[in-house]
Amino acid sequence: MGHKDLTAASESTQFDLVIEPGRSFRHYWRDLWQYRELFYFLSWRDILVRYKQTAIGVAWGILRPLLTMIVFTVIFGYLAKLPSEGVPYPILVFAAMLPWQFFSGSLTECSNSFITNANMLTKIYFPRLIVPASAVIVNLVDFLISFVILGALMAWYRFVPSWRVLTLPVFLGMAFLASFGLGLLLATLNVKYRDFRYVVPFIVQFGLYISPVGFSSSVVPGKWRLLYSINPMVGVIDGFRWAILGGNSHIYWPGFLLSAVLTLMIFLFAVRYFRAAERKFADII
Amino acid sequence: MGRPIITVEGLGKKYLLSHQRREPYTALRDVMAEKAKGLGRRLVRPFSGTRSPFSDSSLEEFWALRDVSFEVAPGDRVGIIGRNGAGKSTLLKILSRITEPTEGRVHLRGRVASLLEVGTGFHPELTGRENIFLNGAVLGMTKVEIRKKFDEIVDFAEVEKFLDTPVKRYSSGMYVRLAFAVAAHLEPEILVVDEVLAVGDAAFQRKCLGKMEDVASQEGRTVLFVSHNMAAIQTLCQRAIWLDAGKVEQNRESEPVINAYGKHLQTANGFSATLRSLDGNIEIEQIRLMDGNDQNTSVYSPGSPITVEIRYHAKRPVHRPYIWIGIRSQFGSLFGANMLMDGVRPEVLEGRGTIRCTFHSLPLLPNQIYRVMFGGREADGLSLLFKATEVTHLIVAGSAEEMGLKGEHADSIMGQSAPVLLPYTWELPDGRTVSVNPFQQVQK
């Protein structure tokens, strides 16, 4: 018995936690790191379930962006005859479809993530940030599938990308911040005000029209472009086009910077808002 | 004894109960409507005071825990007992950091793993193997730890053959076994367990209790264990904390606490934390169980009559409501009395009064715990008046012998068989005809 007490004592010196009202846990970010495996497993679960449940899961991942691309190419490229920055119109559209689909998918799933995992939130402790983050990660799989299609499309048109394609991860990171920031904010609001779930489909639908997915943002008159860039996805999509389409594509840097700064601000605000609301989650969800 | 591994000082948790809203969350449209109303009021009568739309009488404070203090030494196994609504689950939720206390503090000197529900995070589409990893991670194990324990977990759960089957095809017994097996192989310094053993068959329950005892005595871990099963608490725990209405009633060696709690149940059996109708008009002040002699008790012999007595207080007259009472076991609902079905209804509930319902014979097997459920609907038969709520429980005590059941293993089988036993007759190939009427035997 004696040595057991000793081991228990030595173990407990490693761990010391005080729970008090209003005390946000000091080790929040360290905790988050310790729970990285849960993050990994939750993402893995969501990916597994998504592609298990829909028999045509992967086919769906291919078909959706492909059909949207064809419709946009016909409407904007052939009927409206909008400029294509000197590349085949399907590639112009697809370069924007990549971040847009990632954004809309992530936003939708992220904003519902706390509600769909309500049971876990009321039964177990873990840093709650993991739930919306893993919802976004799942959409990376769809993104990768779409990326392969883009590769095929480029091969078909014998289009060779320049070195700029290597900068793509930077813009992907920006798309991640944009969807995670907004998604986290909506997810947190959704816990308290359930009618926010009706806002999300609207944002996604509306966003498709006000983002330069089907057309190049160069068709927007110069004096409006800075205003246009208030939409964070304008910066992301311009960045994707700049990286993928190479030499012919020009980026409007002031607008891009504005988008980037706004994205970062939304993200930081969302994290702060979430951290303040998080402690009451289990009581109201 | 050294330093306590858990120190709880003056712990309290307050909830705001709403009489108008039926859900804990709000709709933004309601908030905006309330704000607009308030604004309108202020425009019309600018000096009538500035009452916020949410500070009005529709909110009421409720302390689920108040002023709770205790210490737990490393390696102790502590049972937490008390009636429904006494604050047990709230205490466990605070200790496992799921919810935050309103006042007081908790000092933990060891890692906590909590098992408030069996199979949290299980996904029905995933296989047993996949769910072991997922659930392990949810409970705080690392991948390496899970891999190391994987075979042990599978052995314990007895599901080798079905490892690659989605758990949605598992029987409920297999599901529970697998889920508990994962949790049982956690290695925290403090293990917090809510009443998860209420599920599963008796043999597996014994196995789980044994495992928990090992965890505590051989590996020197601290266990906090909530249960309604006094026998389980008595075998597993040296100490017990009895919570009543959010306060610590007793805290010492488990045996005297359990005895005192048992006595308390005998005298004050029933539901006493007030249950309120969703529209706020009716308060159920007490629900009691009584035997054939109108004596309040929670222990019944098989086949004996039982009366459920509901004491209400209607603040406003409620016309022609529907009330129902149901009896459940671990297998689900068994039987009940439902006004929606029989059409018997009170014309009006007004002020204080009682409704009684007597079942003339309980056809229930001993050695199981039965839960009494209560609910109600408004006069239209559609709108909920009371959500289905577990209000109290009862124990049927007796032996196979006194019921005239002669099977060799009858006593041990009773705890895990379908609980309702009706009279029946066997006709055998050798010409014998044997009638079995077990409840006749004990009815005096």
Task: Characterise the protein shown here.
The complex is a heterodimer of chains A (285) and B (444). Chain A is an all-alpha fold and 285 residues long. Chain A has helices at 2-14, 28-34, 36-53, 57-79, 89-116, 118-123, 130-156, 168-192, 199-210, 225-228, 232-245, 253-278, 281-284; one strand at residues 17-19. Chain A has one domain (35-284). In chain A, helix 4 (57-79) packs across helix 7. Mean pLDDT of chain A is 85; it is low at 1-13. By secondary structure, chain B is α/β, with parallel strands linked by helices. Chain B folds into 2 domains: 63-267, P-loop containing nucleotide triphosphate hydrolases (Rossmann fold), CATH 3.40.50; 269-396, Coagulation Factor XIII, Chain A, domain 1 (Distorted Sandwich), CATH 2.70.50.60. Chain B is built from 11 helices and 20 strands. In chain B, the strands form 5 sheets. A 6-stranded mixed β-sheet of chain B has the order 5-6-7-3-8-9, with helices on both faces. Chain B starts with 5 loop residues before the first strand and ends with a helix. At the A-B interface, helix 1, strand 1, helix 3, helix 6 and helix 8 of A face helix 1, helix 2, strand 4 and helix 3 of B.
Give the topology.
The complex is a heterodimer of chains A (285) and B (444).
Chain A: H1 2-14, E1 17-19, H2 28-34, H3 36-53, H4 57-79, H5 89-116, H6 118-123, H7 130-156, H8 168-192, H9 199-210, H10 225-228, H11 232-245, H12 253-278, H13 281-284
Chain B: E1 6-18, H1 28-44, E2 59-72, E3 77-81, H2 88-95, E4 103-108, E5 112-115, H3 128-138, H4 143-157, H5 172-184, E6 190-193, H6 202-217, E7 222-226, H7 230-236, E8 239-244, E9 247-253, H8 254-268, E10 275-276, E11 282-290, E12 299-300, E13 306-319, E14 322-329, E15 332-338, H9 339-342, E16 348-359, E17 369-377, E18 384-396, H10 410-414, E19 424-427, E20 433-436, H11 438-442
Parallel strand pairs in B: 3-7, 3-8, 5-6, 6-7, 12-18
Antiparallel strand pairs in B: 1-2, 1-4, 8-9, 10-11, 11-13, 13-16, 14-15, 14-17, 17-18, 19-20
Helix pairs in contact in B: 3-4, 3-5, 4-5, 5-6
